[in-house]
Design brief:
single chain, alpha/beta, four-stranded antiparallel β-sheet
Length: 234
C-alpha cells in the first residue's frame, strides 16, 4: 500500500513545478489534474501572513460567502426563540432551539457544522462554551454568526460561507471548493477569498502582507501561488 501511495504521489509531483509560482488561473486548472482519490476532494488554500496574532490589532479573522459555494452540505444549528426560531426554520436551519439544544450538546450530540445565534442567546450558549470553543463552533459577530438576521446567516452558511482565522504562526487554511468544480468556479472562489483577506490587512502589519500561498487537494502536493498577483486582488 505504501509503495502505491508514494508512486501515485510521485506522478502527481511530476505535474507541479515546485520552483514556480502559478497564477490563479493556471492553478485553477492544474489543481483539477491532481485528483487521485475516489471521493470529490476538497480544494484547500493556505496563506502565510506577515502578522503577529498575539497582538489583538493583528488578528485576521472573518467570513466570506464564496461566489461558487463550497460544494459542501453544511448542517446549521440555530440558537433562537419565538419569531426568530421560526425565521431560522423557514430559512432551512437543521436544528433550532435553546436550553433543549444545550442539553443535547452536553450529552455529546453534535450533528451540525456551524452554530448561529441571536445575541440574547449567548448567555445560554455560554454554558457549553467549553464544548463548542475547542471545536471552533462558537458563534461570533465577526463571522456573522451572532446576529438578529438569522435568516440571512443561515442562507449565507448554507450558500457557501467560509469562516477563516489566522493561527499563532500567521497561517490561514480554508476549503474553497471541490475538485469537481470548473476552473472558472475555482478561480472565482480563490479571487473572492484572497480579496477578503486583503481587505482585512491590519494597519499595523509591516512588510509584504501575504508571505506565501499554496493550493492543494486533500491528498495532493501543493501548487505555489504568485503572491504578487494575490496582493493586488481587491
Amino acid at each position: 500500500m505504501g509503495k502505491n501511495i508514494s508512486k501515485r504521489y510521485k506522478l502527481l509531483l511530476d505535474k507541479v513545478d515546485q520552483a514556480k509560482e502559478y497564477s490563479v488561473l493556471e492553478s485553477a486548472s492544474l489543481v483539477k489534474e491532481l485528483k487521485s482519490a475516489k471521493f470529490d476532494e476538497t480544494i484547500e488554500i493556505a496563506l502565510n501572513l506577515n502578522v503577529d496574532p498575539r497582538h489583538a490589532d493583528q488578528m485576521v479573522r472573518g467570513a466570506i460567502v464564496l461566489p461558487a459555494g463550497t460544494g459542501k452540505i453544511v448542517r446549521v444549528a440555530v440558537f433562537a426563540k419565538d419569531a426568530k426560531a421560526d425565521e431560522a426554520r423557514a430559512a432551512g436551519a437543521d436544528l433550532v432551539g435553546g436550553d433543549d439544544l444545550v442539553e443535547d450538546i452536553k450529552n455529546g450530540k453534535i450533528d451540525f457544522d456551524i452554530v448561529v445565534a441571536t445575541p440574547d442567546m449567548m448567555g445560554v450558549i455560554g454554558k457549553i462554551g467549553r464544548i463548542l470553543g475547542p471545536k471552533g463552533l462558537m458563534p461570533n459577530p465577526k463571522t456573522g454568526t451572532v446576529t438578529m438576521d438569522v435568516s440571512k446567516a443561515v442562507q449565507n452558511v448554507k450558500g457557501g460561507q467560509v469562516n477563516f482565522r489566522v493561527d499563532k504562526k500567521g497561517n490561514i487554511h480554508a476549503g474553497i471548493g471541490k475538485v469537481s468544480f470548473s476552473p472558472d468556479q475555482i478561480n472565482q472562489n480563490i479571487v473572492a477569498f484572497v480579496a477578503a483577506i486583503n481587505k482585512l490587512k491590519p494597519s499595523t502589519a509591516k512588510g509584504r502582507y501575504i508571505k506565501s500561498a499554496a493550493l492543494s487537494l486533500t491528498m495532493s502536493p501543493a501548487i505555489n501561488l504568485d503572491v504578487k498577483e494575490l496582493l493586488e486582488l481587491k
